[in-house]
Amino acid sequence: MKLVVLYILAFTGGVFLAVQAGFNTQLGALAKHPVVAVVSTSIASAIFGSCFIFFTNKGEVSAQIVYEVPWYLWFVGGLFSMIGISLYFYTIPKLGISKMIALGLCGQLLFSLLAGKFGWLNLPIEPLTPRKLIGVGALITGIFLINSK
Fold first, then answer.
1. What's the domain range around 129?
2. 90 and 112 in one domain?
3. In this predicted model, what pLDDT tens digit does every residue of 112-123 receive, in sequence order?
């Protein structure tokens, strides 16, 4: 797949996550608890994901694979997702979506740079380059600009 298509898909994924955050913030506020929105999102994701697998016949999970994958990998992503998304839904009404997304992306970027540098979470090692550090500085500057009045 061409790199430009991958960039477009990644960008579109970010837009979809911001839209999802907006809708689920409304749900969490109306339900008076952000975790209710997370549960709703997780159930809906499971339903839509199952439909995708069923209709495309891709991504079948065999019983053998279920046993070969370490047990914690089936759950730990959901735990971090629930906590992270709950924090998003909790902070959006208080900060606004642009501030929350900017701060959330900063957290993701800084963690991903550290995880890549040290190979955390079994990820490929990626060196920290001056160019990446300049990019982080630009992002942090952008966050200050977004958060200033």
1. 96-149
2. no
3. 999 999 999 999
Task: Take residue 2 and report the two structure tokens written for it.
Answer: 């061409």
Is there a contact between 47 and 114 (Cβ–Cβ < 8 Å)? no
Measured between alpha carbons, how far is 13 from 7 in angstroms, rounded to an integer? 10
Taking the alpha carbons of 35, 36, 39, 40 in that order, is the dihedral positive or negative? negative
Residue 53 gets the label, from left (phi > 0), alpha (psi -120 to 50) or beta, of alpha
Q: Are 60 and 39 part of one and the same domain? A: yes
pTM (2 d.p.): 0.79
47 and 100 together in one domain = no
Query: What digits encode the pLDDT tens for the residues 16-45?
Result: 988 898 898 899 999 998 899 999 999 999
